[in-house]
User: Fold these one by one.
Assistant:
Number 1:
Amino acid sequence: MKRFAFVIHPIDARRDTSRKYPIARYLPERLIEFGLKFTSPAKVSHITGIRAKDGAEAEGWFIACPLTPRQMLSLPLDYVYRRITEACRIGADLGAGIVGLGAFTSVVGDGGVTIAANSPIPVTTGNSYTVATAIEAAVDANEKLGRTLAESSVAVIGATGSIGRTCAMVLGAEAKDIALAGRNTSRLEEVADEVRAAGGQSVSSTTDIKKALECADVVVTVTSAVDAVVHPADLKPGAVVCDVARPRDVSVRVAKERPDVLVIEGGVVRVPGDNVNFNFNFGFEPGTAYACMSETIMLALAGRYESFTLGKTVSVEQVRETQNMANRLGFELAGYRSFERPVTEDTIARVRQAAADAALSRSSNA
Ligand SMILES: NC(=O)c1ccc[n+]([C@@H]2O[C@H](COP(=O)([O-])OP(=O)(O)OC[C@H]3O[C@@H](n4cnc5c(N)ncnc54)[C@H](OP(=O)(O)O)[C@@H]3O)[C@@H](O)[C@H]2O)c1
């Protein structure tokens, strides 16, 4: 039996804390965060029933690091590193051979490097397989809407980040054109050069997210912003938006106001095994997990107790390696989800029809 641990944390202080302490629903967000600051990391569940195609089995534990994204970005970095490292130690004490860093625990500071240096067991951010699944989901959903990547305009929001940069390199090499958006012009230009070197024919960059989105058929959005950065009026009719960020980048208003747009969550993966049980509700169908969790599990199943993805750079080779490992062990992209609901063939047909109607009314208004 192979063993792993995975560090999770509250995304929304009130919503996530009130699952365990219902009284939190009535408390101000800042008061809850104040309490969380002094709460120790702890084991929250035992994960069972994982069995790979080759017969390898694994069990694991979710360990909560009780800090929100806002706290992780605003508290002193040393303090945040210490809390995350404490969570890693709990995993090691339970017998895990590797620990994965969920959501913002992999975003803060140097992307896991300092945490790995102080953790008793190897650490992975899960970002390699997250890139693999984000690309697979975005390309596949675009095809379901009747377009190939070669005839599509792509936008990557958060393109200077660990996940965004590598998504841009892979997608940019095949897309008709690609727009990169971020906050820093010189970092964006560096990534644009890398995308061109990887084969991108038509590459632009901007710090104006709206501008990057206005012509995009395919959007991968993966910023570490704590509030939504993609809004209903920004999107082209018929766009596919793969939202990899946690907390989400896409405003919930898009679900209500833009029936002609398909928003999918990036990186939802079916984990191999007939009785996979996370014993914890993180809002997914049973047996499915985030790609970053899946990378941690597959490294454990393969007996590769090594710090596989660390730091702020993910190479295309690492992405391919996790994809190969996933195929060999039986991990696969699960059906799409959009704002916590499954996306059905009917949903896709409705988006196609609404996009055609929107395009028609735009051209008759022109
Ligand atoms: N779904 C999954 O399985 C999964 C797995 C891992 C991570 N994630 C999520 O993916 C996201 C990104 O992770 P990462 O490791 O790539 O982070 P990262 O390396 O820190 O990159 C974040 C990117 O977002 C940009 N950004 C930050 N705040 C912004 C704002 N307010 N407006 C516009 N752009 C902004 C940054 O620009 P600058 O260059 O200017 O800083 C950078 O390009 C996080 O939300 C994380 O929780 C999801």
Number 2:
Amino acid sequence: MNAFVVHSIPGSPFGRAVLAALEEKRTGYRLIAVAPPALRAPEHLARHPFGRVPVLEHGDYRLYETQAILRYLDRVLPEPALTPADARAAGRMDQALNVNDWYLFQGVANVIAFQRIVRPQLMGLAADEAAIGEAMPRAAQVFAELARLLGEQPFFAGAQLSLADLAIAAQLDFFLETPEWPVLAGPHPGLAAWLGRMRDRPSLRATTWERVAALAAAG
Ligand SMILES: N[C@@H](CCC(=O)N[C@@H](CS)C(=O)NCC(=O)O)C(=O)O
């Protein structure tokens, strides 16, 4: 029996960051897929009162909010460490995680990735081009800031992979399939190269939408 159970929606970037962290730790887990309509069901609201994913269960301990889950996993599964020991590098990791949550997801990914991928593929609806257009200036600002934070470093917090790389790669990966990617990432080849390296990692390969959907279907 796997000690770690993750409730998530296949395709969720936040869920993917958690699964990728478990993969980096080479730790087995059980995935329980949550169908979007079930997010508001009492059973799921008991796990996550705000009706979102992911949720982690570890024995009798239950945790929601991706950053909390990622840090918990890094504490209970210390190897390989995904938080820098150096205070300044750890500060950069925390900053990048919050840029991901507050500026990349809110108003950028949850508009552009949603309109380009989730709406057509899961709902059969056309993308709202006006909404995408409105999100583009903010998206360009966020991509520029991510590129600046990354700089010439191999990873967001410096020489070593950290939780921030997993969270941001899971989020940015969605953009690769959109026509907005060349516009947003074109001016930032270092950021695009970093995403290419991240996508090559076994942890990211093991947690693509398709792989997670297959895992969910297998139970
Ligand atoms: N702050 C939450 C955000 C999680 C989140 O927004 N998850 C999305 C999927 S990527 C979700 O559950 N969306 C369902 C909804 O908004 O109804 C976290 O960090 O875990």
